[in-house]
Write a structure and sequence with these properties.
314 residues, Spore Coat Polysaccharide Biosynthesis Protein SpsA, Chain A, alpha/beta, 8 strands
């Protein structure tokens, strides 16, 4: 029929259960960050076989039929795309939008939920096991840490679903949403600071045992291009990822052209920095330098992670 089109984004049902899934990567993607959506899904699900992804977005139409066909072919039954709920309608400011991830409860039923950043390519396997160990250490139904300023938590937040959302429930979160809609908001108090306030009020903040791994490569749009390669050579897990059928097909077909430019630049810089890191690692491991001299080498490269990744396998 003229003027009609087939809906390509699946509806989500309340309480949907994905068989054998342990972890739900619960993601918010909006504005230009949609360029990272498909690569994120590909990397995260490739490395975490017992995981699913539930992605909320300001523009579900971005996930057109070719994109959804790609996801259904490589990750059948493991990806849900849904619009940002209507109760957040009209939120335009990016600080407000970023806070949606703390104020909406994922619908897909899994024991664990990981709320992260879509511009990080996940390269670690079974990340829920690392975070569950940390949650047990701090005796909390979540795994995260408070930043040095003491009032922000980081934006990489793991939760044990049932005990976490029993306290931080829909009624409580809807009250926060209502206050944000009716009162003048200090934008500096949103996003990571809002998460910290919520967790502190309902569950208490962690004491010691700081743990907040990135789990991959951060391709941030907020840093100079050289920072994208700050981890030095491409880790072996990334090298293997780009050789998989899903990634290869995605690069050829449905990955955003802007992402292709980002990842190409990253790979070129990582190759150059990798050579420098190998040379630096060789100098350090030679044992011919004092601690002060070694520290100067490290400071020159700004981050010792470059050396570690140059030396480690997957």
């Amino acid at each position: 029929m003229a003027g009609t089109h087939k809906r390509t984004t699946p509806e989500i049902r309340e309480g949907i259960v994905v068989k054998n899934a342990q972890l739900n990567f619960f993601m918010l993607v909006f504005d230009r960050y949609k360029l990272f959506a498909l690569p994120y899904i590909t990397a995260a699900l490739h490395h975490n076989e017992h995981a699913v992804i539930e992605m909320i977005t300001d523009n579900p139409r971005y996930f057109n039929k070719p994109k959804m066909d790609f996801l259904n072919r490589h990750f059948p039954g493991r990806v849900t795309i849904r619009p940002i709920p209507g109760k957040f309608g009209g939120w335009k400011n990016k600080k407000l939008l970023k806070s949606v991830r703390w104020l909406d409860i994922p619908k897909t039923q899994t024991p664990y939920v990981y709320i992260g950043d879509v511009d990080i390519l996940i390269l670690d396997r079974n990340i829920h096991l690392q975070h569950l160990n940390h949650a047990n250490k701090i005796n909390k139904p979540y795994s995260n840490m408070v930043r040095r300023n003491g009032i922000n938590m980081t934006g990489l937040h793991f939760v044990i679903r049932d005990p976490y959302y029993k306290q931080i429930n829909e009624k409580y979160l809807n009250g926060i949403v209502q206050r944000l809609r009716t009162k003048k908001v200090n934008l500096k108090s949103l996003d990571e600071r809002l998460l910290c306030r919520i967790v502190k009020e309902k569950l208490g903040l962690p004491k010691g045992n700081d743990f907040r791994p990135v789990h991959g490569i951060h391709l941030s749009l907020h840093h100079p291009i050289i920072k994208w390669a700050s981890t030095g050579v491409c880790p072996p897990a990334f090298t293997k990822l780009v050789q998989t059928p899903a990634w290869s097909e995605g690069i050829r077909t449905v990955f955003d052209n802007r992402f292709k430019k980002v990842i190409s630049t990253f790979q070129n810089h990582a190759l150059k920095l990798g050579r420098e890191d190998q040379a630096l690692a060789t100098k350090i491991l030679s044992g011919k330098f004092s601690k002060d001299e070694v520290q100067k080498f490290i400071n020159r490269r700004q981050d010792i992670r470059t050396v570690k990744i140059s030396l480690q396998g997957e």
